[in-house]
Specification:
mainly alpha; 14 helices; 3 strands; about 5% strand
Length: about 300
């Protein structure tokens, strides 16, 4: 990529960070997508300001030709559109050539869900004689009972868990905060893990406030959580394709089946940008907690 293109990507990233409040993962993806396009046009001697819809269609066609799947193509197109919205907002171009660029259609396949019995089996499969045993149980229960994204779980801080009140505060996409009710099962598993965590003597500097730590005293990575979930599912004899997101999807599906209000579920999943101080404008917190807890299987099957 030319020095000019590199500088343009830097400006794009700064614009996205300030104007859109995107998550770090989305910001990185958009930057990578725009870089792919700039590499493409640099090779053809086309300036960013001279890109046309035909140029973009040729770029998109090339993605297909090299075997990139439809879902990945759609995501890249989304990043390209964001880049040209930036170019237009900064008056670097007068018209957005990506406006009519269409992403490939993708058939939406709902991920697998787990039954309550399968989640219980995963937790029961964990070897509690190991130092990480209680931690892993608490991870599975928190992902399921609270419907967290794995990125939210690994960044969860102890001072954002309010056990007497039965809530935790999650920092989600776009650095937005939301309140999530804690079920009695999640509270129990977290408290047991906190007792184990308090006995850790070598916690990595900077991770002192993080809830879930690895055996070396540092925060867990998303990949590590993925393996914890996969191993527990395999030991429980579950043959479905399992990931941390499976527990999040199961959370939503079970609440819907239990009759929970869709608006409340959307807020719990963080699909809307609602800051902590704004949540009371939309729904009373005590009613929200009662609605979620009353419909969640953990509270139906475990008094």
């Amino acid at each position: 990529m030319t020095p000019g293109s590199i500088a343009l990507i830097d400006l794009f990233e700064a614009h996205m960070r300030l104007e859109r409040g995107l998550s770090a993962n989305t910001l990185e993806a958009y930057s990578r997508d725009a870089s792919k396009l700039l590499d493409f046009i640099d090779d053809r001697g086309i300036a960013p300001a001279d890109v046309t819809l035909d140029t973009l269609r040729a770029f998109a066609s090339g993605l297909h030709d090299i075997g990139i799947g439809a879902a990945s193509q759609a995501r890249i197109v989304s990043g390209i559109k964001a880049f040209f919205r930036f170019m237009t907002a900064e008056s670097r171009i007068s018209a957005d050539p990506s406006e009519l660029l269409e992403a490939p259609s993708t058939s939406r396949h709902l991920p697998d869900t787990l039954s309550v019995a399968e989640i219980d089996a995963m937790e029961a499969s964990i070897d509690m004689s190991k130092p990480e045993g209680q931690r892993n149980r608490a991870i599975i229960e928190t992902l399921y009972s609270c419907g967290l994204r794995v990125s939210e779980l690994v960044d969860l801080e102890i001072n954002r868990i309010f056990i007497p009140e039965g809530f935790l505060i999650v920092v989600g996409k776009g650095n937005k905060e939301r309140l999530v009710p804690l079920s009695p099962s999640a509270i129990s598993e977290i408290q047991k893990w906190l007792a184990d965590r308090d006995r850790m003597t070598d916690i990595r500097r900077g991770d002192e406030g993080i809830l879930f730590l690895n055996r070396r005293g540092g925060r867990l990575t998303r990949v590590m959580v993925f393996y914890i979930i996969r191993r527990a599912a395999a030991k429980a004899g579950i043959l479905k394709k399992i990931s941390p997101h499976t527990l999040r999807h199961s959370f939503a599906s079970h609440l819907l089946e239990g009759g929970a209000n869709l608006r409340a579920i959307q807020q719990m999943l963080g699909h809307e940008s609602i800051a902590t101080t704004e949540i009371y404008l939309h729904i009373d917190s005590s009613l929200l907690r009662r609605d979620i807890l009353a419909c969640h299987p953990r509270n139906i099957h475990r008094p």
